[in-house]
Amino acid sequence: MIVFRVLALILIALALMLLGADALNSLESRAVTLRETAELWAMIHAGSLDWVEGWIAGDAPAWAAVPIDFILKVPAWAVTGVLGVLFALLFGRGE
Predict the structure, then answer these.
(1) What is the pTM of this model?
(2) What are the φ and ψ backbone dihedral angles of 36, each rounded to 5 degrees?
(3) N or C: which end of the chain has fewer CB within 10 A?
C-alpha cells in the first residue's frame, strides 16, 4: 500500500512540474503550448513510442487503439495528474 501512496505522490508532483513547464513555454512563446503525452514519451524512450504508434496503425483492435491514441494526444500533465489522484484516492488512508 505504501508503494502506491508514494507512486501517487510522485505522479502528482510530476504533473505539477509538467504543468509549470507548459506554463513557462507558453509565456516564452506568447502562445498556449501544451506538451502532449506522446512528446514526453518520445523524450524518455522514442523506440517504444514508435512501436506503439505502429501497433495502433496496424494490428491494434479498435477497442484498444482509440483510447491509447487519445491518451497520446492529451497533455502530459493531465495524464500523470489523473493517475496520481486516482492512486491517491484508491490507496489513501484506508483506516
Answers:
(1) 0.85
(2) -75, 160
(3) C
| 36-40, 55-59, 72-76, 90-94: least confidently modelled range | 90-94
Give the domain ranges of the chain: 1-33+75-95, 36-74
* DSSP codes, the chain: -HHHHHHHHHHHHHHHHHHHHHHHHHHHHTS----BHHHHHHHHHHHHHHHHHHHHHTT--HHHHHHHHHHHHSBHHHHHHHHHHHHHHHSS---
